[in-house]
From TrEMBL:
This is Molybdopterin-binding protein. Residues 35-180 form the Oxidoreductase molybdopterin-binding domain. Coiled coil: none annotated. Signal peptide: none annotated. Pfam families: Oxidored_molyb (PF00174).
Length: 198
């Protein structure tokens, strides 16, 4: 005879193997922004891939839409402890955008955004089908408060790494800290290892 009824066991946090340690499930996709929501017209939108010596490649909205688009269903985990399961997105893989770029000398990257937010990631966290520029959520254009027109989507890391209003990605041969990382958030941010703070 168990201590809990089957229904109660199913609702225990640690009973769900999809939930990283210390997280709870939500279904309302909370908004978390460090500043005001920038309003960017699609005609003005641009994304640049940079390295130390300048722009490597750049995309307009039109040229981004011309790339192979993937349907992405993922669980997202925020360092403030909410997780949401089965979130449906559309976006372009970073593998596509970095195709033909020699990343062997640039193991670090910094995402830059309209509004000035930055976050640092390892190049290895961007490649191998693990990261996208996402522009649709739940069948609709990505809402401005969630990072529309387009945001980085790196579901295997805490959500602060998924930079909203993405505008640039700078490939670097050296390590630098982004906005929240300078305030003590973890350098890597793996929710399964509970890498919340540094
Ligand atoms: N440009 C930008 N991107 C950002 C942020 C921000 O303030 N500005 N906040 C980060 C943090 S701390 C979180 S938790 C997620 C929240 O994404 P959401 O508002 O879509 O839930 O966006 C991340 N990306
Ligand atoms: Mo956050």
């Amino acid at each position: 005879m168990g201590i809990f009824s089957p229904g109660f066991v199913g609702r225990r946090r640690d009973a769900n193997p999809l939930l990283p340690p210390g997280q709870y499930e939500v279904s309302n996709f909370p908004v978390l922004s460090a500043g005001p929501t920038p309003k960017i017209k699609l005609d003005d939108w641009a994304f640049s891939l940079r390295a130390g010596n300048g722009d490597l490649k750049a995309w307009s909205w039109e040229t981004l839409m011309g790339q192979p688009i993937e349907e992405i269903t993922v669980d997202l985990h925020c360092v403030t402890r909410w997780s949401q399961f089965g979130m449906g997105w559309r976006g372009v893989s970073l593998d596509v955008l970095l195709d033909g770029v020699d990343t062997s000398t640039t193991p670090y990257a910094m995402a830059g955004c309209y509004g000035g937010y930055t976050t640092n990631v390892r190049t290895s966290d961007l490649l191998g089908g693990k990261a996208w520029i996402a522009f649709e959520f739940d069948g609709k254009p990505l809402a401005p408060e969630h990072g529309g027109p387009a945001r980085l989507l790196i579901p295997h890391l805490y959500l602060w790494k998924s930079a909203k209003w993405l505008n640039s990605l700078t490939m670097m041969d050296h390590h630098e800290l982004g906005f929240w990382e300078m305030y003590g958030y973890n350098d890597i941010g793996d929710p399964w290892k509970e890498e919340r703070y540094s």
